[in-house]
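writing this on my phone so excuse typos. first protein, seq and then structure
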Amino acid sequence: MMSERGRTTQFSRREFLAAVTIATGFPNLFPVPHRAADGWDVYIIDFNDMGERVGRVHVPKVVKTEAEWRRTLTPLAFAVTRLADTERPFTGAYWNLHATGIFRCVCCGTALFRSAHKFDSGTGWPSFTEPIAKENVVGPRALNPGAEATEVTCHRCDAHLGDLFDDGPAPTGLRYCIDSAALRFVKAG
């Protein structure tokens, strides 16, 4: 995981594909974010705290200034989620957690992972075979031009969560290697 992530003002690949899709008359081919007065709106899958699917919801993209993020997050959570830093292995709150529940984004509360999909990867970070809903997680993408595409982010607020690798167990073969500092655990019941 990298220590800093650069942002550009260019179109993202999704925004470019959405524009091409609309221009070519295939509006349902790709999910298209909608422009709200104060930022982009996105679709996510909402879950209650019991982990039950509530449904697909249209929500505003969470956009804050660096100062606002610093006021609402711990220094470590800010470094991980906003600067793409990483916590040291075997130090996070959830790497060895075995309780039943769901993991939400520490920045915006979006449901990201289920404890049922968590496994012990031996890496010292919480690892999951799949997200709670593919619509809620973006990636993998590259942190920098020319870098390997592994970064995973929250769809609603762009928080850096961790990385995705293809060395996980069955049935997916995937390992979402996620920083505890990017998550908030909600225990079932």
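second protein below, same order as before
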Amino acid sequence: MSGFYKVVKTTDEALQGLKNGMTIMVGGFGLCGLPEGLLKAIYEKNITNLTCISNNASIDGFGIGLLLEKRQIKKMISSYVGENHLFEELALSGEMEVQLTPQGTLAEKIRAGGAGIPGFYTATGYGTPVAEGKEVKTFKGRPYILEEALTADFALIKAWKADTMGNLIYRKTTMNFNPIMATAAKYTIVEAEEIVEPGELDPNHIHTPSIYVHRIIQGKFEKRIEQRTVSQ
């Protein structure tokens, strides 16, 4: 899409340009804030050899879990395995490369990528396998390791509300990785719960401005509960 109107009608249009071997960022935390429809479309299009940057890999058979089923992801960069048993199996067997990164470090690597900062020093992970092969510097007597920023070809984002120009509002926990990922990719594709006309969103409440967004599609969400707990 070009110009101010960024809404597309099909996932083919939304994912135009996404090819085998690219790097994608996928928003969400567990199942909260997950662009479900876009992930299912990648699954159906059989795009393979992907590097996926996401906090975790959803659950078996849903979200990123679908892509693991058909081995469409060659490398996962994430902070934990979560509730996905197949992710665990692929990581332990070595069938899929996995780069586990402390959660705060992962978030900062993405934020830095969006800000044009190539890297930063952090004390997190020093003295553990996380620090292997990384430069170490000492500041005020404390050792820090160098972490390089992360960027991607495509960022797949879920928004609560979007206007047709691409201004976004997230809701509650979906504020986690979605806003920073929206800034750190060549193309940011948004799956929104609701799309409104320009001027309907309060400018004071916009989390991601339209300059970062390339395409928007109306989503249909299952909104699964990752761990359902009920009282007796």
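The chain has a mean pLDDT of 94. thats all i got for now
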